[in-house]
Write a structure and sequence with these properties.
The chain is globular and about 40 Å long. The chain has one domain: 3-Layer(aba) Sandwich (Glutaredoxin). The protein has 4 helices and 10 strands, in the order βββαβαβαβββαββ. By secondary structure, the protein is α/β, with parallel strands linked by helices.
């Protein structure tokens, strides 16, 4: 499935379009500056990124209504992560069914969603990750294969909505 194209500003004001990612494996990560699960994933992504190099691009998408752009900018700068896109009206979060942070969506080089959901197997009962669904999905796509599994329910901090869904 192709997600709807979108155009979002990043924290520096540059507009990023989903269609700009065509030709590369892309990871869209719904991101929060207040979620410890996102912080854990950011640390893991730093290591994964060394293996991925230029073959994979990661965009963080901030959609929580309770996080101000300046707060997001300070946190992103402190972690050295970029780009962080601002989904202030939560259109992208709704279109990609993101309900928690982190929620990851992995696109193949043609822009087709090949994996969505949890980055790893952490749950309330399992505090340390034993399996990285994200790393597995990206590795499969880089080898030209479909990820298995293609979807795992995301676990993390609830994405704060500006208004209830359906309104």
């Amino acid at each position: 499935m192709h997600p709807p194209d979108f155009a979002l500003p990043d924290l520096r004001g540059e507009t990023r379009r989903l269609s700009d990612l065509l030709g590369r494996v892309a990871v869209l990560m719904f991101w929060s500056c207040e979620c410890p699960h996102v912080e854990r994933l950011d640390r893991a992504l730093a290591h994964m990124g060394m293996d991925w190099r230029e073959d994979v691009i990661v965009w963080r998408i901030a959609s929580s209504a309770n996080e101000a752009p300046e707060q997001l900018r300070l946190h992103a700068d402190a972690l050295g992560v970029a780009p962080v896109l601002l989904d202030t009206d939560q259109t992208v979060a709704v279109s990609l069914a993101a309900e928690v942070t982190p929620h990851v969506v992995v696109l193949d080089r043609q822009g087709i969603i090949r994996y969505a959901g949890a980055a790893d197997d952490v749950t309330l009962r399992q505090r340390e990750p034993r399996r990285s669904y994200l790393a597995e999905a990206v590795a499969a796509l880089l080898r030209g294969r479909p990820p298995d599994p293609s979807e795992v329910p995301a676990f993390g901090c609830v994405l704060t909505r500006a208004r209830p869904l359906g309104n």
